Each structure stands twice: as structure tokens, then as C-alpha cells.
Amino acid sequence: MTPVVTGIVGLIGLFSLIAMGMPIGFAMGLVGFLGFAYLISFHAAIIKVGVVTFDISTNYAIGTVPLFLFMAHVLFASGIGRDLYDVAACWLGRRRGGLAMATIGASSGFAAASASSIATTATMGLVALPEMRKHNYDVSLASGSVAAGGTIGSLIPPSGMFIIYGILTETSIGKMFAAGIIPGILLAVFYMITIAVVCRINPNAGPRGPKYSFSEKLVSLKKTGEVIILFMLVMGGILLGWFTPTEAGAMGAFGAIIVASLRRRLNWKALKEAIYSTLKTTGMIFGILFGALVFNSFITVTNIPLNIVGFVTESGFSPFVVLLLILSVYLLLGMVLDASAMMTLTIPLFFPLVTNLGFDAVLFGVLVVRMTEIALITPPVGMNVYVLSGIAPDIPLRKIFKGTLPFVMADAVHVALLLTFPILVLWLPSL
Amino acid sequence: SAAEFNLTYASPYSTTHPYGAADEAWIERIEEQTDGRVDITAYWGRSLISSREGVDELEAGIADMAYITPIYATSGYELNRLTPAFFYGYSDPAHVLEVYQQLWEDFPTFSEELDGVRVLGFNVGTPMHLQLRDTPVRELEDLQGLRIRAANDYIGALAQFGAEGVAMPMGDTYPALQRGVLDGVVAPYEALKSLSFGEVVDYYVDLPHSRGAYASRAMNQDVWNSLPEDIQAVFIDNIDWLTQKNLENSMAAEESGKAFGREQGVTFIDIADSEKQRYAEAFVSSARDVAEDLDERGLPGTEILEQVRQAHQNAD
Amino acid sequence: MRMIERLLRWVVTAGAFTGVACIIALMCLTVVTVSFRAIGIAFPGTYTLAEILLIPAISFSLAYAAYEGAHTRVELMTSILPERLSSLLDALMLALGTVFWVVVAYAGTLEALKSARNREEAPILGFPVTPFRWLLVIAIVLLCLVLVVQVVRALLRTRQVKEVSKGSQS
Ligand code: NA
Ligand code: NA
Question: Is residue A1 in some structural domain?
Fold first, then answer.
């Protein structure tokens, strides 16, 4: 078999194993290992597995995920997350889909403190998802808005993806950070409109809650005091330079424990439950990451990505068509590859092409980062969706993917808008 | 493709990086000089090979050729990994390269440590300096209390002048400088532009942190053995070319880093030679420790240290 | 079987405790580093230590998640098949999936042996890293054992179809 054929066989094998109920990470790891061994050698495959698994087990940046999870589990176990959503229900619950919109808003806010999509999704999945379900939200809409909300984070600084892009292409990281802000806010608005549209089509998706008087609303705010302090502490700590975004997870978890204890909401039993749940969700996420990394290595050596890139590079189409093609390539590769793998594999090849065609490096960066984030919520391999389904195991994957679909459509409109009016991206960095 | 020998090349760097650009030119040259009998497929930016375990990965045949960084390995390759620390105080990369390549000739252990691979090129890093967010450093006493991101090798020296060395991952450094978690970073001119540090630092102090040199490009030994002599000869003939091209690109990147820094309003501070001298002395004891550790392992640590220091003295 | 399960539970609990301790230590390490940084006291080794602590935290979390049946999977096929067949498919899929983790454990063993041979040390702090590499191997071996027991359990289920399977994974 040629490498490309091996890759296709591998993909078919992967989807069959997943459909037959093999845990997703295990299936990716197994197919990735066997494929790599077939294409290179058994020994090479063993070494590759050893290197990538140890690498990810000692990766400080990804290693903060357990700490963000710990924070979320503490907020959940102590009922603080519930309080927050009671307040949201009070203020926004009257509007159809109001809680899902609040989730998008909260995800965007949280994204300003976290550099990682997975951390945002996992946290909001723990805090927001149970509350939306309690308020009778359709599981697809509820889970879709959490999974999609997690992708906003890469546009709002600090953003790990912008830093990777900046380093790979020597593009100004400061300009990337500035460029992401307007598209990020715009995306949050788009997502909220999407929720409104979904609820217009299916009024039961995000049912109206009871009506509260203005004084009741004001009283409800009392419940949020500590969380607002916690949030300001984490955000303020980052903005004032007390700690880095990767350290924010630990500070947030510690702060959550303090806040929950002060409110006498956190007894020993709840804390124990929070920490063991953290361990469980951590294992679930890294189970997928271990497999995904091995699988990425396999896909790399099948040369499928290189062939697709080569096709686009040599197509000879007009610049704009080439750019559209490139974006479609990301959509395609994003179905099976993880976001950072896609970046490192394709950017060194696409970047010179795109800049030679006269496109702005910052604009391209924002578009690419956006495309890699969309990949996190498109089937069949979508990391945010997998993470969420690990947190809420009773929701079938296909329901979450169904829920992310309207958001992917909103993304398409969003990307088209940025392509048509690049000024939305380029205005802030030009100041 | 129609070529006789289809080889893969993997690098942790990308083609915008000076090392990646050198590789790209080298690949083209090899293909041309072998009349298309060799065809090379390249994988950039860590997509196929890591920097920590690159040598082992190459040896295992994950790629046929690779950019290797034995200096970043977690263990093993002691001479290759640890002797670059002996080059403290050096400021001319060309001189570092010359002295280092002499070591390779004088001490066969260097190549024996890498016996699963065939070395095809060397790399010398341009020196790193001190980049500071908002505090100028004009004498070493100004370092007192500053938090500075630095490679592990430099943390001890910084500490001797009261600065706190921080071993932060590169990805965190930009935001940390931006917000003031860090006061500075030890990085080369090139990083002003390539890592955007020019945007978040106000001062560049030319206090040298030499990086030494290392064997940086190699081919899997079995693949090498499978090639006919005339093809091998092309690779061998290009070892110096690749090494020089790499240095050339690094020097050019240094210049564009400086230009970007000026554009961003970075103030460049020339620190006095006496301060550079005092700073270099701060590395003496840790270099000696490394040498003794190597001696203990039965390697010519002290001997190499003396040779490197002697060559530095002779150049002055 | 019951003996084995009891033993396994005990070992998994010990492993989980190690993982939990490391996550808490990781949090405290960062909090202490950040606080002391504010008053000008530095710990240059924080990142090194954090990276090392991550090894047991992550690897034991993998085993614990397997024990809790938390690894994400699609239940499409197993939910439409008759129970006996679905248990058989379960067993087969878990057994095949275990192969991957056996590979991870074997690869980890090679790396640990290399680390021991080279006397690998943590940068800055200088303590040996090899024991932590062995911890990773131990945790992955534990994960494999958990999976093997689950395979056996699923196979037993195919024999006693009538018994309601309560421990089934969600
Ligand atoms: Na962010
Ligand atoms: Na996807």
C-alpha cells in the first residue's frame, strides 16, 4: 500500500473501531501505532509512542488543564456554579436561549484568563451544562454552545494558538493579540444570534424561564459576590503581571477552594469528590490526547496533508481562490487532526505561498487559528466535543455534534465576513 | 517521484527560521548536485521530530535525516550536550565554530556518542544577551532583584548578581514580559523580531551568553550505509556549506532583529568590557562542575574545558 | 475473580491517591511560587518540578479514569446489538484497545531504562528523573490490568446474560 492508501485505510479502521465502541483515544492510539509501524518500522513506532507520551506527560502548558478542571470541579461541588446560573436565569432566563447566551458570554470572559480551548470547554461544561439542562434546555443546544463557546478563547488574548503562529511565522505576537479582539467579540455576538435563531426555529430548545421583578434581580446579585471577586482576582492577576495564564489555573483552583470554604459550602466530602472527579476527567482528556498525538504522527507520515498542500500550492488559481482552498483544507484536515498538529504541519508550507500572493500575515494568522478552532467542534474528531462528552457521559457524541452544527455555520459566516472586510482584523493592530 | 533515493528530512524549526531556511537551500542543492537522483521530502515545525529526543528518533528511523539538537536532550550524549557550556565569554560565533570543530577532530567521543547517525552539518548559535522590559542594566549590580527568563545554564550566573533566573517555557515568555511577570529574558538579537520580544522590551544589553556549537544535521546511519559512495560524497561535500549557510542566515537574522528593535524604539546599551569580564567569571565554577562531572563519567571533561578556555585566551 | 478485583481496587485507590496528591502539590507549588515571587523570593526550579509532578498526576489519572469507565466512547453499536453480542464486542474492543496501552508501557520501559543508563537528572534541581519514568510505566501497567479485568468481566457477562449488568459503562 502507498502511504496515502495506508492513511485512508487507517481512517476507515479508526472510524470502524470508534463505531464499534472502542474508547476514542485507544482507537486513535492503536491505529496510529499500527499505521506508523507499517509505514516506517515497528521500532520507529515504539520510539515515537515513547517520545510523544512522555512529552505530553511533562508539558507544562497542557499540564495546567488539570488545575483548571480542579477549579471547575470545586465550583461545581460547592454549588457556586449553580448560584451563578441562578443569577443568570434571573436576569436572562426570560429570553429564549438566554442561559445559552450567558454561557457564550461567560466562555468569552473565561477565555481572557485561559490560553486553552480545552480548559475553557471543560470548565464551562462542568459549570454551565448541568444548569442549562436543569432549566430544560435541549441537550444539543446546551452542549453545542459550551463546546463552541470554548473556541472563542483562541481569539481573545492571551492565546496559545496566536503565540504558536507568531513563533512559526515570525509574525508580531502583539499584532496577533490585537487582531483577535474584534473578531473575538464579533464571534461571541454571532454565536448569540445563532442561539436566538435556533430557539426561534425550535422554541423548546431554550425555553423561557419565569419572570423576575427588578428588585428580585438586584437581590439575586448578592449570590455572585464571591465569584466575581474570584474572577477579578484571576483576571486582575494576569493583567497586573502577578502570574502567567498557565499559572492562572492553579491560582483559580486555590481561590475557588478559599471562596467555597468562606461560604461554608465546601466540606471535606465535597472537596474529596471534587479532586477525585478532577483526576477522572483529567484521565479522560489525556486518554484522548495520548491517542491523538500518536495518530497525528501517523497521518503526518501518510503524506496526505503534504499531498493536499502540494495540490493547492501548484493549483495556479487566482490568489483569492487559493486562499479559499487553503481554508477548506483546514476544514478538511480539521476533521481528523488536532489543532496544533495542523498548524505545525501546514503553516510552514502555506505561509510563504500566502504571503507571496500578497495576503497579510496577521489576517492569515487570524483566519488559520479560527479554522483550527472550528476543527475542535467538527465531526468525526473534535477535541472539544470529546472533552465535553467525557464530562457529561450520558450525552451521546452525535447529539453534541448536532448541537455544534449551527455554530459551525455561524463560523462560516464569520470567516466570510473577515475575508470580505479584513479591516475588522487589521484595524486594531494598525493603531 | 521518479528519483532513485526518496529521503525524508524532519526539523523542529520552520522555514521562516534561519536554520529552516538554510535547510531549504541545502535540500535544493543536494537534489541539484545529485542530478535529481535524490529527492527529499521535508517535515517542518516539529510535525515529525521533537527537539528533546530528536537524535533517538532519527536513530530509530522516524525520519531519514533530521535537524538534531543533542543540546536539548534530557540525558545522554554528554559531551555533545554539556560542553557548549564551556564557551562562556565568547562573542564571535565564527570563532566558537572553529574551536568546536577542532574538538570534534581531537576527541572522537563526540562522534562516537552519536554513533547511530551520520552528522551532516554543524550549528553555532549567535550569542544571547539581556533583554529587559523597563529596567536598564548598565552594571552587574543593576541585576539585583530582576526576574529573568533564561536557559538553565545561565541561571547560576544570574543568581550570583542577585537576579532570579526563571526557567519558563518559551511560549509563556511573551505574555510574561508584556504583563511584567518577568523583568527580562536572555535571548539573541534575532528574538527581538522572531519571537516579537522587541515589542515588549525597552532595553537590550549586550552582555554575552555564548551558546557554543553542536552537531545539528544528521542522517540515520542505516540509510547512510545504503547510499552509494557518489551520493554520500555529495552530502559530505556539503557539510561545510550547510554549516556556513546556517551561520550566514543566523547573522542576517541578527541584523533584522536589531533593525526591528530600533523600529520598536528599543534602547541598545553597550555594557563595559570590565562588566562582561566579571560576568564571564560567574560561569567559571559551574563550567568546572560540569567538567568534573564529565571526568567522573570517564569523559575528557577538564581537558576539553581547558582547550576551550585556552583558545579563548589566545584570541584576545 | 473477586479476589483479583479487590486487589485491583486497592491498587487503583493507591494510584489514584498518588495522582491526587500530585495535582494538589502542583497547585500548592504554583500558589507558593506566585506568592513568594510577589515578595521577591525566587524558586528557579518551579517549572522543572511542575513538569515532573505532572507525570504521576497524568499517568495515574489515566488508570483511574479507566477504572471508573470514564474513557470517552461511542455507544451507537453496542446499544442496538443484543446484550450478549454487545458484551462480546465490548470485550473485543477493550482487548484491542489494551494493545495500545501495552505499547505505551513497553515504550515507557525502554525510555526508563535509557534514563537509568544515562543517569538522567532534572535540570536545575539535579534529582534523578528515572523513578518518575518508572512511575509512568507502573501507572500504565496498572491501566492495562484494569482493562484486562474489564475484558474478563465483559466476557463473563456474555455467559450470564440474564444477570443485569449494573457496572456497565456510560
Ligand atoms: Na484566551
Ligand atoms: Na474536527
Answer: no
Which residues, other chains included, contact C90 with Cβ-Cβ below 8 Å and sequence gap of 6+? A21, C78, C154, C157
In this prediction, residue C161 has a pLDDT band, given cuts at 50, 70 and 90, of low
Site from A41, A165, A244 to mutate, B interface, most B CB atoms within 10 angstroms: A244
Task: Evaluate whether residue A372 is within a structural domain.
Answer: yes
The answer to whether C129 faces chain B, any CB pair under 8 Å, is: yes
Burial class (CB in 10 A: 0-12, 13-18, 19+), A240: exposed
**Structure confidence at residue C169 (pLDDT):** 42
Counting ligands in written order, which one lies closest to the CA of residue A113? 1
Q: How far is it, in rounded angstroms, from Cα A14 to Cα A225?
A: 48
Which residue is associated with the grid cell 474492543? Answer: C93
Alpha-carbon distance of A61 to B171, in angstroms, equals 8
Answer whether residue A315 shows pLDDT above 90: no
Structural domain harbouring A232: 59-266+303-430
Task: Tell me, yes or no, if C95 comes closer than 8 A to chain A by beta carbon.
Answer: no
C-alpha cell at A234: 484571576
Confirm or reject contact between A169 and chain B (CB < 8 A): yes
C37 contacts on B by Cβ (under 8 Å): 147
**According to the model, what pLDDT value does residue B284 have?**
95
Dihedral sign computed on CA atoms, order C51, C56, C57, C63 = positive
The interface pTM score, or ipTM, of the predicted complex is 0.94
Residue A232 has pLDDT above 90, yes or no: no
Whether residue A348 lies within 8 A of chain B, CB to CB, comes out as yes
Q: Give the total number of structural domains in chain A.
A: 1
A170/B175 CB distance under 8 A: no
Q: Is A15 a member of any domain? A: no
